[in-house]
Amino acid sequence: MSIREPGDVLIVGGGIAGVTTATSLREGGFHGGITLVEATPACTDHPPLSKRALVEGATRGELDLLTKERAAALNVEVVVGVEVVSVDASAHTVLLADGRVMTAEAIVVAVGAEPKHPVGYGDHPRVMTLRGYDDAMAIRAVAGAHSTVVVGGGGFIGAEAAASLRESGSRVVLVDPHEVPGSHVLGDTLARWLHAMHSEQGVEVRHTRIDAVVSDAHDDNAPMQVALGDGSTVAADLVVVGVGVTPRVMPGAERLVAPFGISIEASDHWDAARLDGMDAAALLLGTTPALRGTPWFWTDRYGHHIEVVGDLANAGLTGAAIDIIRAGTAVFRVDGDLLLGAASIDDPMTVRAARRIIDRGVRVDRDVLADPSVSLRRMLRG
Ligand SMILES: Cc1cc2nc3c(=O)[nH]c(=O)nc-3n(C[C@H](O)[C@H](O)[C@H](O)COP(=O)(O)OP(=O)(O)OC[C@H]3O[C@@H](n4cnc5c(N)ncnc54)[C@H](O)[C@@H]3O)c2cc1C
């Protein structure tokens, strides 16, 4: 069953999931009204925020996922700068923070996640998280050649922020208690390669945790004292916290039931969120969702582009998975002759071929995987 034409769809949240829902509805031939409500001043793409936006200061417009022109061409009404407070699934309404009530036949909630901010990190204005455009610009305003930045957390956001802030000339101290941050997602081999880049690029890496951030109550501009678990203290101009995210909760959204409403779960990676948006549109239209390939994502740091597909961290079906290394540019996780996951540094074609190999269950030859002179496409042809 699909929504009745010409019903209206209201989408809450203008991240990649919400915007893709809107564009996919139109591409799927939906002629009803589409309204998208976004809390911030624009539908901002997030991945560039820890990369070129921090280093080069991109404008909000450059990162806009749904410009006025594109929205007009798609006939999507975009309402920005106002939060949706709650959803009433049975009445098909949403309540906005400015008191307006909007009605739609179907409601899609795609509000993503927000960064965690542990208590010990304090609430000083220069203790910041990085999620939206304003966060990136606030960090950029303090960072620079004469500043010391403590980055708490060496996961994706922390690691990318550390790399960008280093590139901007800041002294960067990266604090994470794990010897190899990210190994639970990236596997030990790749996570080690990536983590080693920090020290090679002049970031001071401390394997401990932040115990407390102490600031001068009388002087907002004075450096903060960041007390670390190893007993040392770092005087910092800025603390960037990257210790994970929590899905945002929209009151009432849990009662949305397709095809009259969908609550899209927050995804850790951009491509998964985009596919979730496509699935939501298909569900509303009553069409078959597109087949998903093996999960894929990327991360950029210190001028390197890293792509990852599949599972690099688990032990495989037989519990005997091993890593095969291709001369420092790629790593493959195999179980027997089955490819479980792959990652590359500055070699996206290898990961794309690996994705097709995993999708099709093509058997792999370990010698070919290890040999950088042989293209992976040979296995696909075989
Ligand atoms: C700095 C940064 C760098 C990243 N880099 C990468 C990367 O390199 N590779 C990768 O694969 N992934 C990356 N990601 C992750 C990726 O961006 C997310 O997985 C993706 O943005 C999730 O999309 P989403 O639409 O589900 O949620 P979000 O992008 O979080 O979008 C949700 C939107 O809803 C809005 N909203 C929230 N509450 C309300 C409300 N009450 N009313 C109205 N609107 C509301 C928010 O303002 C936001 O615009 C990065 C994320 C960040 C923050």
Describe this structure in words.
By secondary structure, the protein is an alpha/beta fold. The protein has three domains: 8-112 and 248-285, FAD/NAD(P)-binding domain (3-Layer(bba) Sandwich); 116-244, 3-Layer(bba) Sandwich (FAD/NAD(P)-binding domain), CATH 3.50.50; 303-381, FAD/NAD-linked reductase, C-terminal dimerisation domain (Enolase-like, domain 1). It contains eleven helices and 23 strands. The protein has helices at 16-27, 52-56, 68-74, 133-142, 156-167, 183-186, 188-200, 270-285, 348-360, 366-370, 377-381; strands at residues 8-12, 33-38, 76-80, 84-88, 93-96, 101-103, 106-109, 113-115, 127-129, 148-152, 171-175, 204-206, 210-214, 224-228, 233-236, 238-241, 245-247, 261-263, 296-301, 304-310, 322-326, 330-335, 338-345. It has a five-stranded parallel beta sheet with strand order 3-2-1-7-18. Helix 1 runs parallel beside helix 8. The two termini are 43 Å apart. Bound molecules: flavin-adenine dinucleotide (FAD). Flavin-adenine dinucleotide is lined by residues 12-18, 37-40, 46-47, 49-50, 83-84, 110-113, 130-131, 157, 248, 266-271, 273, 297-299. Keywords: FAD, Flavoprotein, Oxidoreductase, Pyruvate. This is Pyruvate/2-oxoglutarate dehydrogenase complex dihydrolipoamide dehydrogenase (E3) component. One of its GO terms (cellular component) is cytoplasm.
